[in-house]
Each structure stands twice: as structure tokens, then as C-alpha cells.
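Re: the 151-residue chain
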Amino acid sequence: MIKLADLIKELESNIPDHEQINRAISVSSVGWHIEHSLLAINNIISALKNSEPGKYSWKFNPIRTLVLTMKNIPRGKGKAPEIVMPDDNIDEEKLKKHIQETLEKINIIERLNPDSHFEHPFFGMLDLKPSVKFLEIHTNHHIKIIKDILK
């Protein structure tokens, strides 16, 4: 699996095309997919950092197991929570700034307790390792959509 920093840099490489839309692929622009991915990364890292590791509790979740094993999120099957929905003001400078903030923020991950966790709306509680794997899968999912928009 490609590391998160490399995926963020790949998102960054698509910033010049941030206004591009292909409604046959997605109702959202390339910029929306970039910003949504960055919001997800930053919010999940914040949740991991602010979690109480002693309260982590694993429970089986078949959807989580399938997605993390297949390393794929089916298109059109989920709805993003409001907290990771970009606003309408997406511009090149904002995206560049958010990329840099995110690249800095991912450095926090290596210092977190392995039982740091967050509650995913579909997958339930994820501790650190599957959280990072999810972020990689989720970001790659949106990179694939961006590539299809730009074809």
C-alpha cells in the first residue's frame, strides 16, 4: 500500500485541475475530492490524538473487515459525514495550504498510542493501525475518482 504522505502528494499534484468536473463520474469537482480527503485525514488524526486509549474496545464488523481486506471502497455506497464535507469556497491557495498542514499533521501518527482510536460511522471503532490503513484506502479511493474525472 502506498504511504499516506505519498497519497497526499498525489492529491497535491491535482490541484491545478481543482475546478474540473465530470458529472458522469462525480457531481463534485476535483477540488472537492482533494479537500474532502484532507478533511478526513485531519479530522481522523485529531480524533486519534484526542482519544483515550484505555477506552478502546474491538468488536467484529463485517463491512470494516471487507473494506480493509479488499483495500477498496465501493463507489457511491457511503455518505460523508458533515464534518468532512468541504464548503463551496475551494480555491488553489486554500488547497495548497491545507496540503501543507496535512503533511505536517501526519507526523503525529508515529507518536500515538497503538490503542488510540476513532469511531467510524460505518466501521465502528478503529484503533491506530486500521485507522491509518483506512486513511490510505479512503484517500486512494478519491484519487481514483479524480483520475477518472480527468480522463
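The two ends are 24 Å apart (CA to CA).
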